[in-house]
Write the structure tokens for this entry.
Amino acid sequence: MATLKILNTINSYDNYLMKFGGYHGMNYKILVIEDEPMITDVVKSYLEHNNFLVRIEHNGIEGLKAFHEHRPDLVVLDLMLPGLTGIEKW
């Protein structure tokens, strides 16, 4: 169910952007911090298809480390993560 909501949101956003001349990821770095493998697989596949550089972390502690080490352009953050929630230190 959550995956379908994500796909619908991504498709809606994609359609919105395409109306205004299209876009390409242009190698922007995106950090996805999510503990559900099915969700990360879908999001990573879609973003890489659109030329974004994607790094996946599966818990809040590793996500925070990756944020400081890699300085992404965007973070996609789950709020209910093991170890350190998406609310505690962000």
Q: What stands out?
A: The beta strands are 29-33, 53-57, 74-77. The first strand starts at residue 29 and ends at 33. The chain has a mean pLDDT of 80.
